[in-house]
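BUG: 3D viewer hangs when loading the predicted structure for this chain

Environment: internal workstation, default settings.
Expected: structure renders.
Actual: progress bar stalls at 90%.

Input used:
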Amino acid sequence: MASEARRENISWVRGFRRAGAIPAVGFSLVALLLVWLGINLVQTPSDFASVALEGLTLGLVYGLIALGYSLVYGILELINFAHGDVFMLGSWISLSVAAHKIGLTSSTSGFKVVWGLALTLLAAMAFCGILNVTIERLAYRPRRNAPRLAPLITAIGMSFILQDVGLNRLGPAPVSVPNILPPGAVFSIGGNEYRWSSLIVALTTFPILFLLIWLVQRTRQGKAMRATAQDQEAAAMMGINVNRTISFTFLIAGALAGVAGLLYALYSTNIRYDQGFQLGLIAFTAAVLGGIGNLPGAVLGAILIGLIQQFNEGLSWHAPSSQWTQSIVFAILILILVFRPEGLLGERTPEGG
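Structure tokens produced before the viewer hung:
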């Protein structure tokens, strides 16, 4: 009975697609969205530009987290739900190193801020990278050949374990992060300031994306990653160390989570033990929207999600309440999974059945 119902649902969706209803509905929604954005742009251009820049910045933070999801999924087809909590611990270790060990504060001199942040970045990347590799070795590798549900449940369990670690280290209340970046704004738009923390996010994310694409597409290790993603057994027969390649992938994904953890702490100036759960789900939504497993798609989806969130919360003309932001984001996830599961830039695969 369940299989018959599933076949009927698949047939209904396929018939809906063939009827051309999905493109029509999609174009209508996009047109309404563009009209709404256009009216807001005409009425308050400076506010619109400021909100767009903040949405871009927030989207780039999501993008760094989404890249980690895409890397791991591209190799193992595993949704590593613990990745968001690794990002949270990246924020914690960044706070510990920058504020408690190095002693960076708002009055710290510029030179000390530069080398202090560089040292903090390296510490966060190393900590999160090693943590992610350890998780893969102890929790995921023994279940690699198990039914797909087992690694998924394991990932959720690891997420709760790391969240409890964060609760123990940070406590239940938000923890303030010292504002150690230069005071003042980089520039202003109609009285709205564009902060140094936002600029640093942009200056960090785009080079990392290009470096990651180069690593995957051009290097020997990247070729091993792509071969392992296509067929692990064939890759092993060709002399590729599959376990080492997967561990390297988790190392890179963890390092990206460390970068995101530091940038988010600087951008938001406060961190929470449960930030990884919420932001991790949003970043996962962004990865699905762009095409999970596709690196530029992950960043594109993250930027779109960041813009949607900031437009909803920051525009003044007939914007939904900020309480609806998460509902809008996860509604997008549901629609993408139902009607375009490969995402915006993902490759379409033949449907079975």
